[in-house]
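Entry:
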Amino acid sequence: MKILLLNGVNMNMLGRRDPKLYGTQTLAQLEKQVVSYARSKGAKVVCRQSNCEGKLVEILQRTDCDAAIFNAGAYSHYSYALRDCIECIPLPVVEVHLTDVNAREEFRRTDVLADVCAARFYGKGVRSYLDAVDFLVK
């Protein structure tokens, strides 16, 4: 199985952005951990990141992967373009978030992607990503 690991807006700031909330791990470190974990489960991971909504749509539409793990960041709360994209692509997309979005600001409790994703894992840091790998390889 080939999995697209797609991180969205501001995820490139991991390790520098509010370490009390997001931790000190960088995006590169997170990606390395997910790649290694997936490899141990017999899957290959391709990592991508963009801060641009349209670029994220293009990456999802053009991927040759079998499935995707997607942290859209703040786009999860209002991007109907990403929602429509996920709805029409022929692969399962698992939404992940490092933090518990339901325990944070009110606006983060709205998730326009949730009903078109195969599963959601959030609030467990990098473990959310690893749970997504487990979900997809089963």
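The chain has a mean pLDDT of 94.
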